[in-house]
Amino acid sequence: MILFPPTGVMSMILSMEKGPIRPPSESKSLLIRATRNCPWNRCAFCHTYRGCRFELRSVGEIRDDIRKAKDIADLICDLSRQEGSDGRVSQPVVQQLIARGEFSAESIQAVAAWLHYGGDSVFIQDANSLVMKTDDLVRVISSIRETFPSVHRITSYCRSRTAAGKSFEELGRLHDAGLTRIHMGIESGYDPLLRFMNKGATAADHLEGIRWSREHAEETARVINRINPDYLRLRTLQVVAWSPLFTMMQNGAFHPLAEEEIVKEIGFFIEHLDGIETSIVSDHVLNLLEEVAGILPGDKSRLLTTIGRFLAMSPEERIIFRVGRRKGIYRKLNDLADRGTYLWLKSIVDQYVGDPDLLEQELTRIMRAFI
User: Residue 186 pLDDT more than 70?
Assistant: First the structure.
């Protein structure tokens, strides 16, 4: 027999809203969506929000999601204690809470993972949440801090133009409320390249690869030297299918640098960083040399030595390292010392001796799958 609820009563599964992306360094953070999509949404290399309208969520909506996260966290801790796990997150507890049907499985799993990793950081989504009115964003940040006293880091994406539009007093208020870091993708400090990535290209605008690469690196370093950020994260471009930049690549208006040229570009960029105290992080799966990471100025020489070491390797060693890196086997250049793994990867590379372009296509396919 099927039992129906009384007239007018409907069971509803509660869910926290979540955007599509966050920085790799925020993988352990609780995601709170304050805005939907991107207010700019014109960058040639990005298709994440194509066809999506930018929207500001109300402070009430955002606070409702914060309360849901709190309710889920409390339920997880209560169920854990009832089962003798002393409040710790466990899979049986998560499954039991999902079976109740009160909250969506995705929301429960997100909060459970956050608690498992310490529950001490929050990332405010989406692409540029500082576009919110400062008063509203302060209220959101304050609500996070009040609801979760254990949180000591709150971060968000922000466009440089948006940040520039905030007064010093406004930025101070956001910091005082609890905003500890903004992730800002400047992409380049070279104006012609910035215009190209935003507006597309004509025949007269075709890239002059090496010149643009060097000027992009040098001018970007100049901008970074003036900013002196706490963190500088390296991100390797991957042209995503059906983005405007992909169309430019297809019609010959854009030619991506080869991986080894990108390594040279990063070396040239780091070489021109001067007078700053900044942590460089290479924490993205698309970056070939993960170990190009350290604190400037002290580690600058070591970073350049690592890059020089890769470029000084034989062509065979470089391609074997690239294959190992893209297969998730290699993380550091010293990994090449494992002779058994080296010979196995060499056997893979040897299969493409007669058609090296096919190997490049395969490596590109693997990298695109990462995004």
Answer: yes
